[in-house]
Every structure is written in C-alpha cells, then in structure tokens.
Specification:
The protein is α/β, with parallel strands linked by helices. The chain folds into two domains: about 130 residues, NAD(P)-binding Rossmann-like Domain (Rossmann fold, 3-Layer(aba) Sandwich); about 180 residues, Dihydrodipicolinate Reductase, domain 2. Helices cover about 30% and strands about 30% of the residues. A nine-stranded mixed beta sheet has the order 14-13-12-11-7-10-9-8-15. Strands 3-2-1-4-5-6 form a six-stranded parallel beta sheet, sandwiched between helices. α4 runs antiparallel to α9.
Length: about 325
Amino acid sequence: MASLRAGLLGVGMMGRHHARVLRELDGVELVAIADPGGDPHAVAGDLDVLPDIDALIDAGIDVAVVAVPTRFHEDAALKLAVAGVHTLVEKPIAHSLAAGQRMVDAFANAELIGAVGHIERFNPALQELRRRIALGELGTVYQVATRRQGPFPSRIADVGVGKDLASHDVDLTAWIVQSDYDVVFGQTAHKSGREYEDMITITGRTESGVIVNNIVNWLSPMKERLTVVTGEKGAFVADTSTGDLTFYANGTIPLEWESVSSFRGVSEGDVTRFAFPKREPLRVEHEAFRDAVLGKSNDVVTMEQGLRTLAVVEAALDSARQGEPKRLARG
C-alpha cells in the first residue's frame, strides 16, 4: 500500500518536531512543507519551503498538519477541507468558538478526519493512568487536580495561557474521567503587561460529578506538569514532564496511635511507582491520526472534542470577567 502523502504547514517550535516525526512514521511520507516565515530551524532538508497553504495543497497531499499560530487555523483548515485533505490542527482548535464550529462542520460535511493536537492525552503517564482507572484500580473517581505552570514562552503572542495551556488540562481531565465539564468558575490575572491573561484557575465539576481544579500560569520560575486523580482506593499522581506515574494507596493496617486513629478518613498505605513503556507522545499522536485516516481503531482527538475543550476554556474566561460560575451546554 502506498504511503500517505503528508504536508506540514508551519515549521516553528512545534512544527519542527512534527517534521521529524512525520519523516519517521511508517505509512506516511512527508512530501511538502509550507511556512511564510521560512525555515528557522532548518528542518526542510531537500524539500522546498512553500509560501502558503495554497501551495501546500497544490503539492498533492493526502493528510496535513497545521502548526501555525492559532489565529490562522481556521483559514488553513477550511481550505484543506475543500481540497479533501485529512487534517491534524495543533491545539487549541481555533481562536473562537464560531471559527471552531465552522471547522467541525467543514470536515464533517466532507467526511474527512479532522483532529486536534491535544498531545497530553498521549503522554505515557496519562495513558497508563487512564488504563488503570478503566480497570477499576482507583474505584470511583472523586477529584482531578492539575498543575501546569512555568515561565512565559515568548513565542506565544496570539492567545493567553487559558487557550494555550489550560486547554491541555481541560482535555486530559475530561478524557481521564470520560465525562465533559458541566460547570466552571474561572479566575485570571494579568501580571506581565500582555493583552492576554498569564494566570488562570478553573474550578468546577464534570457531568459525572467529579470535582476538577486546573491551576495554570506563565508566572512561575518552577516548571510543573502534574495531574493528581483521587478516588475511592487512593490517588494517582502523573508527572507528564517525566512520564512517571505513582499510586498512593489508602491504608489497610489499623492505626495504633490514638490521636491519629480517631480521625475518620483514609490513612497512608503503600506507595507504588509503576514501570511501563514510555513512547514519545507526539509519535503516538501521529500514529492515532494516521490510523484514523486509514479507518483503523484509534484514539485520535476529534475536532468535536477540541471544540468542546475550547468551549470550557471560553466559559472559564467569561466566568473570570463576570465573577460568576458558568454552566456548559450539554452535548
């Protein structure tokens, strides 16, 4: 079977990694690259750097990856849909809900695969966490708390930390518990003199009743990427910066210290750090997209799911502006 002919729009900080993985992916051949800004990281190799999305389409591609700034996602995606090209768009899906909806509709009407690059779902720690929750190792899930913080990346200029980073946590939280957000309360801060927020917290609850809390900022000198899932049998802690997963079990040994044993709650039990294969998340994401295009079983993040994530972030931003909780429309 012939390889899928792939095109890449954007070879900046993220696009350069897409180029590398596309070149290494079985069943896919990177045949065209386009970027109006040229090739700052010298990843094109023997390929010409085309000027725009129209030239990329003219190269005769089957699939495309869109890794340009968020405000350009809609224009590129709609042109790719008209051209019959299956497309993976970097997160967030679009700069606005209206634009995202137009993208969803275009790919659905054309019967094409439209996917969004929420790469954290493919992190080995979260994949293993989701697998173990599905097996019932945590019992009923009570709460998901995430912390994603670190210094400001100067390359991000067209969206705030909510759409750029909190979208990761919203997507992975809903995926881990297999339930959409139902209600959110957001708080934001603007401390670095930019147009957009550089700190956000999202507190809320999923439709299934799980309490959620997402702490995200560009104001910390300490880089942190943690997901803590607390449930009936203990708590999982996933560090997505290292791919590590640890389980803190509820204690089963009776406590003999009277002042402690009188507390009616859980006690500390065994702590287990799991060993499991750790594959590069971007490669796993691309494999899922390829398999979706080929009609195989896959875990691709659909444009519909990407739009739902954007809706949650927008609701949290609205909540922060208005100072009141926001309820999400049920899908």
